[in-house]
Amino acid sequence: MNETVDMSNGDTEKEIVIVIRKMHKWYGQFHVLKDINLNVERGEKIVICGPSGSGKSTLIRCINRLEEHQEGEIIVDGTELTNDLKNVELVRREVGMVFQHFNLFPHLTVLDNCTLAPIWVRKLPREEAESTAMEYLERVKIPDQANKYPGQLSGGQQQRVAIARSLCMKPRVMLFDEPTSALDPEMIKEVLDVMVELATEGMTMLCVTHEMGFAKTVADRVIFMDEGEIIEQNKPQEFFDNPTHERTQLFLSQILNH
Amino acid sequence: MAQTVALSPTSQRNIISRLWNDKESRSVIIQIITISLVFAFMAYIIHNAVVNLQAIGKGFSYNFLWQPSSYDINQHLIDYNSRSSHFRAMMVGILNTILIAICGIVLASVVGFVLGVLRLSKNWIVNRLAYCYIEYVRNVPVLLHILLVHGLIVHAFPVPRQAISIGDVTFMTNRGIFSPKPLYEPLFLVVIALFLLGLGFMWWFKRYAKKVQDETGQRYPVFWIGLAAIVGLPLVSFFLLGSPITWDVPELKGFNFAGGMVVRPEFIALLLALSLYTSAFIGEIVRAGILGVYYGQTEASYALGINRGRTLSLVVIPQALRIIVPPLTSQYLNLMKNSSLAVAIGYMDIVATIGGISLNQTGREMECMIIVLTLYLVMSLIISMIMNWYNRRIKLVER
Lengths: 258, 399
Fold this sequence. Notes:
Helix content of chain A: 25-40%
Strand order of the largest sheet of chain B: 1-2-3-8
Largest interface: A-B, 37 and 31 residues
Strand content of chain A: 15-25%
Order of helices and strands of chain B: HHHHHEEEEHHEEEEHHHHH
CATH topology of the domain at 75-82 and 89-177 and 265-350 and 377-399 in chain B: MetI-like fold
Shape of chain B: extended
Largest sheet of chain A: 6 strands, mixed
Structural class of chain B: alpha+beta
Distance between the termini of chain B: 45 Å
Mean pLDDT of chain B: 87
Strand order of the largest sheet of chain A: 6-7-8-3-9-10
Oligomer: heterodimer
Low-confidence stretches of chain B: none
CATH superfamily of the domain at 75-82 and 89-177 and 265-350 and 377-399 in chain B: MetI-like
Number of strands of chain B: 8
Distance between the termini of chain A: 30 Å
Mean pLDDT of chain A: 90
CATH architecture of the domain at 75-82 and 89-177 and 265-350 and 377-399 in chain B: Orthogonal Bundle
Low-confidence stretches of chain A: 1-10
Shape of chain A: globular
Helix content of chain B: 55-70%
Strand content of chain B: 5-15%
């Protein structure tokens, strides 16, 4: 069924960061992810789209094992995800994640949100962690909010802090789980700008998003999922202009024509 | 063009109606009425008391407090005998209430937190056991728990002559648990000094370790070094100084033990019953607190590579505390007030001393009840004050 376009075959020099092979996942009886095969190259930007309930969030949550898969294998940066807690922690250090609802720690200041993991996981001196944090806060353009609490910021600002918080761990891969879905329209742009900037710097990114403009300008590859399967994947130009699969065409017509 | 404005009906109403319908003046009027009513009620109550006291020929005086109490109290933290004054009996009662309240609050909190965490365990057996315990304990009145535990100790434990002996120094009997009492020799002061020194070192070392972590990222095993300083050092010096303590071991004399220290069955029964009863409620509060922290917080922490233990201590518990503390305060207050049920098994607390025997002997019911009420009120307010201060400290900063 999978009309896989294996992008990695052509260029063998590229390093593969994430390998997903024959992966299945069930929620009880419900088969959420069916035979997922995916290779992600270093520096590649992938946008995953699809109707709600198609398993796209579950897929990227499997990559840092916030969800466990039951069959097949997931290898991130050479480490296979199994029940081994140490390996899981190792992978999570290298894989940053941005959530739909930001999930900032409300009892800590913006700066402490950003330094918590570097201090406790990377064991950095506070001063160094703080200067790194300020660097990233400047890049997401809110250094002046460093000593405020998350509750005092707007949604867009909170999401930018969440991105900075992930970047402070200097991850090799960033996962975005619908980062703009909970934002007001005028705040979406400020978050997308940060993501575009991150993409141009060569970060490996997997984004679940409905922002098709972002997909067109930034993505190297667009993946369409439906009912737990990868239905179609292609370069954005091809994907939007000539969707081959019927379900892809239906989905695109629904989100693009209104 | 000026438009005609409809005349507001306000100006047509009389002054009372206008005052009553104005938001600010209405609140002033209501406050005046309320205060007048409260004062009138209090004046009526006091007048009523004065008239009735006069009618039966009784005065109102606290002089009885300085007369000898002529009754015994089996557990007293300060010197007391039947020739001591009623005032001293009251002090003994207050100390006994404070003792049971503090011990009870500590024990109830520890057991409660453990219960709350067990209740959240994914292990089915552990989870169900905690559930059954909580449902049994909190659905039986606390007075029954007190009578049950007291009954168990008094009837199930042997009489002193057949005491259960633990190494021939501690004896468990139905008259209490007798254990050796330490008699300190002068050299023991050195051990105490070293212990205090250890505490001081710990206080300094904790700050030093934080500074080192801030500067280099390295973390010292603060707990173990602290344990060595506070416990290890005094312990080693204790033996080096030749154990400067002698023990007064309880001995069976006649029908009971003499010498040593004793923990009375009334105290054990009241402590266990009150704290186990309250711990069931605290367990549910703790569970609610932890569940009340949005699961996304845990996920965000995991996603940053922070492990389970640190996620709990750095992210979940600080947020759970703000949900836990206000209802926890109520439970502490309940425990303290429920300790007045001590009178059922003869534990000599405030109610049993000044509100019980002293009252009956002197006939000063008005004076005694005012004292008892005031004491409970003061203790409750102190607990509330401490907990409110703590609650403010951990409050989240919102917009």
